[in-house]
Amino acid sequence: NAGVTQTPKFQVLKTGQSMTLQCAQDMNHEYMSWYRQDPGMGLRLIHYSVGAGITDQGEVPNGYNVSRSTTEDFPLRLLSAAPSQTSVYFCASSPQTSGSSYEQYFGPGTRLTVT
Amino acid sequence: GQQVMQIPQYQHVQEGEDFTTYCNSSTTLSNIQWYKQRPGGHPVFLIQLVKSGEVKKQKRLTFQFGEAKKNSSLHITATQTTDVGTYFCAGPSTGGGNKLTFGTGTQLKVEL
Questions:
Q1: Which residue of B33, B42, B48 to mutate against A (max A Cβ within 10 Å)?
Q2: How far apart are CA B64 and CA B75, in angstroms?
Q3: Which of A64, A79, B6, B68 could form a disulfide with B103 if both were Cys (CB 3.0 to 4.6 A apart)?
Q4: Can you spell out the DSSP letters for B44-61?
Q5: Alpha carbons A86 and A84: distance in angstroms, whole number
Q6: pLDDT over 70 for what percent of chain A?
């Protein structure tokens, strides 16, 4: 199993450009999520999905869109990149539960710079 | 909203010294998870604590969940250079399920 994969590993964008960060998992996990990591601020939840066709907003959703057409894939779209979106982005997945929480498996991350 | 704070933010130790990071939540947690992130890497799950007052050990790492289930700690005995990284605690977010609120993290540096 490859686990959680993310592409690209690095990306430089100009302000106003759009792009899609790819995330895929081969563990048949229902729950997937996107986080951004900024120095001193830990990991903040952007969007998450509890299954194909179902997405919801996290703590910092503005400027980002997601969709979940399959169990495996959960792409994150930046609509119009801004310098404030310079960050490291992590995708994560875990088995879905209705009650408790399970460990999350993280991808290797995408380091995004917006100039 | 729910907040999870960790102290200290940074810690430099000499190899062989002990290290402790503390995690405090503004709300009672049903469980708490700990993750380790090596420099340039991604967070990796270490452990989950569920019961009030629970203590779990993994070799030189000792994890504790507070009696009130609002705080937790990670203690490393006799640090090694392989312990370098950032340690995060995480608790279930309001709304339940798999949503997690991560702490701010403690960055550990170990010097020879």
A1: B42
A2: 9
A3: B6
A4: EEEEEE-STT-EEEETTE
A5: 5
A6: 96
B25 touches chain A (CB under 8 A): no
pLDDT less than 50: residues of chain B: none
CB contact under 8 A, A43 and B102: yes
Q: Do the Cβ atoms of B90 and B35 come closer than 8 Å? A: yes
Identify whether the C-beta of residue A58 lies closer than 8 Å to the C-beta of residue A64: no
- The pair phi, psi for residue A61, each rounded to 5°, is -85, -15
Residue-averaged pLDDT of chain A: 94
Q: In b/e form, how buried is each residue of B81-100, taking b as 16+ CB within 10 angstroms?
A: eebebbbbbbbbbeeebbbb
Is the preceding omega at residue B8 within 30 degrees of 0, hence cis? yes
Q: How many CB atoms lie within 10 A of CB A6?
A: 21
Q: Which of residues 22-41 of A touch B (CB under 8 A)?
A: 31, 33, 35, 40-41
Tell me which chain B residue has its CA closest to the CA of residue A90: B42
Q: HSE (CB half, 13 Å, CA atoms) of A93?
A: 24
What is the rounded CA–CA span in Å between residue A68 and residue A114? 25
